[in-house]
Design a protein that fits this description.
This protein has 370 residues and is α+β, with helices and mostly antiparallel strands. Helix content is 51%, strand content 15%. The chain has 12 helices and 9 strands. The strands form 2 sheets. Strands 1, 2, 3, 4, 5, 6 and 7 form a 7-stranded mixed beta sheet that branches. It has a two-stranded antiparallel sheet with strand order 8-9. Helix 1 packs parallel to helix 4 (68-81) and helix 9 (268-293) runs antiparallel to helix 10. The two termini are 25 Å apart. The mean pLDDT is 96.
Length: 370
């Protein structure tokens, strides 16, 4: 099987890589990350003009990509540059909007780079369970209102429009009765409480107190599951990009740092640890390829592949982050060395959209019904 990207997809990845190397170096990234907004509308617009947002969505939605490997090619480059812009939320919410009727104009604005999105689904008690939705939706006089709280929504403050899951019927834990709504923070009466995250990004709590919203889908559980699967492919490939940078930086350090008059990479014990790290990264890459290829498969095949990838990324990511820091000695934890920021992002990815334990249990459970 040929795992190389198509010519068009490779061209996009190369163009994106050049842009990030030239205009989004570590210093610029830190400046954006520490700003009040935590993202850059200038870079967001420029990346949209390059076609990066369009690559995340299929042609019928106005984009020119949307496959698992299109998403992989983009997010791998984001991982290499530690991009903090609101792409994950835009991907998740946009994926759902592309599968419902009547949202073509909004999607066009998203792809043009004028409307960043956020996907507010997880709640304080949900513990990665996609059906644990307690936010209530009520309809009075033809107007929908939402009440409850959404937790740790990535780049929530950056979004013009927020896609929110809320329970129309049933109780938390039931897959049926979950509706999907669009809400505009500026006019809906909802509140956003933003904060910095340990990896340099920003998250936020969305407090809904009778906030106005527009219903876009009833019984939206399958749409949520599909969107989260897409997000798991994106996070897996972002992690692979991060791991490749950590491996290259560690190899370079072992070749240049000297003890007893020779580079420390000459010592066999360190060579073994470096070889083990490289093998584990290739295993993570294989799991990422499998997940990207399965994104348009049947539900069980898709979900098993993305859970397997997320479990592998979580396990390998912890190993790579710890080994890179230890092989760099004391300087591996310093703020000035980019390595520490890559390690923090890798750790954070391990917990987004389900951690290692959650996806191992889920993979086993899905195997029983396959």
């Amino acid at each position: 099987m040929d795992f190389n990207h198509s010519e068009d997809r490779q061209m996009l990845a190369d163009t994106l890589a050049r842009y990030l190397q030239q205009r989004y170096p570590t210093g610029v990234r830190h400046k954006i990350s520490s700003s009040d907004t935590g993202w850059s509308s200038e870079h967001w617009s420029a990346l949209a003009e390059l076609g990066v947002v369009g690559a995340l969505f299929p042609e019928e939605a106005g984009g020119f990509g949307g496959s698992g490997f299109d998403i992989a090619a983009v997010f791998e480059q984001f991982g290499k540059a530690l991009v903090v812009e609101p792409f994950l939320g835009t991907l998740l919410a946009g994926r759902i909007l592309s599968k419902v009727q009547g949202q073509k104009q909004l999607l066009e604005e998203v792809i043009a780079g004028t409307v960043p999105l956020a996907f507010a689904h997880e709640e304080p008690q949900s513990r990665y369970d996609l059906a644990q939705v307690a936010v209530r939706a009520e309809q009075n006089g033809g107007v929908w209102t939402l009440s409850g709280c959404k937790a740790v929504v990535p780049q929530l403050e950056a979004a013009n429009q927020i896609l929110v899951s809320a329970r129309i019927a049933g109780t938390p834990g039931e897959e049926s009765g979950i509706g999907l709504f669009l809400t505009d923070v500026a006019s809906s009466g909802s509140q956003v409480r933003g904060y910095p995250l340990v990896d340099g990004g920003r998250g936020g709590e969305l407090i809904l107190a009778g906030s106005r919203a527009t219903l876009i889908a009833e019984n939206g559980y399958s749409l949520i599951e599909d969107a989260v699967a897409t997000g798991l492919v994106a996070l897996s490939w972002e992690a692979i990009g991060v791991m490749d940078v950590l491996k290259a930086a560690t190899l370079d350090y072992l070749r240049t740092r000297k003890q007893f008059g020779v580079p420390i990479g000459k010592f066999q014990a360190l060579q073994h640890r470096m070889a083990n790290m490289s093998l584990e990264i290739e295993q993570a890459r294989s799991a990422g390829i499998n997940a990207a290829a399965a994104l348009d498969e049947t539900r069980v095949a898709r979900e098993r592949a993305v859970s397997a990838a997320k479990f592998t990324i979580g396990r390998v990511g912890t190993l790579v982050a710890e080994e890179a820091i230890q092989l760099h000695g004391g300087i591996g934890m310093t703020w000035e060395l980019p390595l520490s920021h890559y390690a923090k992002r890798l750790t954070m990815i391990g917990h987004q959209l389900g951690d290692e334990d959650h996806h191992l249990d889920r993979f086993v459970a899905l195997g029983r019904v396959a």
